[in-house]
Write a structure and sequence with these properties.
This protein is α+β, with helices and mostly antiparallel strands. The chain is about 35% helix and about 20% strand. The chain has a five-stranded antiparallel β-sheet with strand order 6-5-4-3-7. The chain has a four-stranded antiparallel β-sheet with strand order 9-10-8-11. Strand 5 and strand 6 form a beta hairpin.
């Protein structure tokens, strides 16, 4: 029974035959591509009617031919908006220059842009695109770790490694089932089922070392939803206790706070003199504490008491070290 190639691969081979002026017909092409003449006729119809290629039947030669010059096969067609989006994506890679991610990211984007050159008239290498990106702090996670974790997540393989928490002075062994890889604030994390603790844990790739596959497979939970998992986190850390956070910002910071959406569950209430109260319920205070401290004297914690006391201690420590 004839085998079937992917449609795009078949049509590209038909294009090669036509471009080479070999005057192929449905019978010769079906033998070449090991498929039926019906499939060949359908492919040629698509090339002519949908891709706009000048392919016609020549009764005298008993074969198909291009009635005008064709520079290349139009693998991808894009609108002006889609082209601009691709140029923006190219600019978005700039923060990764000099990191292990630069080469594979540029390679992937080049493969996309190469498929566009037959259908567009704007160079993808242009440097004057009026868009730029600037990020403060790019993850130092190395490419080998990233590839290791990516393979474990995609192939549903258990992953063992050594990990050092921020509060620990040494690395500890972790045995996990990696479920989801995510990037938050330019830092890469992997959400895993920690087999020793029998709970979901989030690990920063940059703090992982000595990764290995024990050769065990697992089934990723079908009901896992990363948005649902992180709904009570200000970033990626999720604890077991819920806290109702209330922070008052002065009129100077209020404008800046309201210019961004910091979390889907946030609430902002206007106060007197242009001040606002920022409200949110979270299952961990570590990340929002750092965020509040970044606003300095423009922020005042109203609650909870645990966060208020922690901010006060941090402020005292900063003053002592100044």
């Amino acid at each position: 029974m004839p085998s079937s190639r992917p449609p795009l691969a078949r049509m590209m081979r038909i294009h090669d035959e036509l471009q080479g002026n070999r005057l192929p017909n449905a019978t010769s092409l079906s033998k070449l591509l090991e498929t039926s003449t019906k499939t060949i006729n359908r492919d040629i119809g698509f090339m002519r009617d949908q891709l706009g290629l000048p392919v016609e039947w020549d009764a005298k030669s008993n074969g198909y031919w291009y009635t005008s010059y064709v520079d290349g096969f139009p693998t991808v067609q894009v609108s002006e908006g889609e082209l601009f989006a691709l140029l923006v994506a190219q600019k978005a890679l700039e923060p990764y220059k000099g990191t292990p991610f630069q080469e594979p990211l540029e390679s992937a984007l080049k493969k996309l842009s190469d498929g566009l050159k037959d259908k567009i008239f704007i160079s993808l290498d242009r440097l004057d695109t009026p868009v730029s990106f600037k990020s403060a702090g790019i993850s130092n996670a190395n490419l080998e770790t990233f590839q290791f974790v990516t393979r474990a997540v995609s192939q549903e393989q258990e992953l063992h490694f050594e990990y050092k928490k921020l509060s620990d002075s040494r690395y500890k062994k972790r045995h996990t089932q990696p479920i989801h890889l995510c990037c938050v604030e330019n830092q890469w994390y992997v959400v895993c089922e920690d087999l020793d603790r029998k709970a979901l844990r989030t690990f920063a790739l940059v703090r992982m070392r000595k990764l290995m596959f024990p050769g065990k497979r697992f089934k990723r939970p079908k009901d896992f939803d990363i948005q649902q998992h992180l709904k009570d986190a200000f970033g990626v850390f999720v604890g077991e206790t819920k806290y109702k956070v209330r922070v008052e910002f002065d009129s100077w910071a209020a404008q800046l706070i309201q210019e961004k959406n910091w979390h889907p569950a946030q609430k902002i209430k206007p106060r007197e003199d242009g001040r606002i109260e920022f409200q949110i319920e979270l299952a961990d205070l570590f990340e929002i504490e750092r965020w509040i401290l970044s606003w300095g004297s423009h922020a005042k914690v109203i609650g909870p008491a645990k966060l208020k006391n922690s901010i006060r201690k941090q402020a005292e420590a900063i003053l002592k070290n100044s």
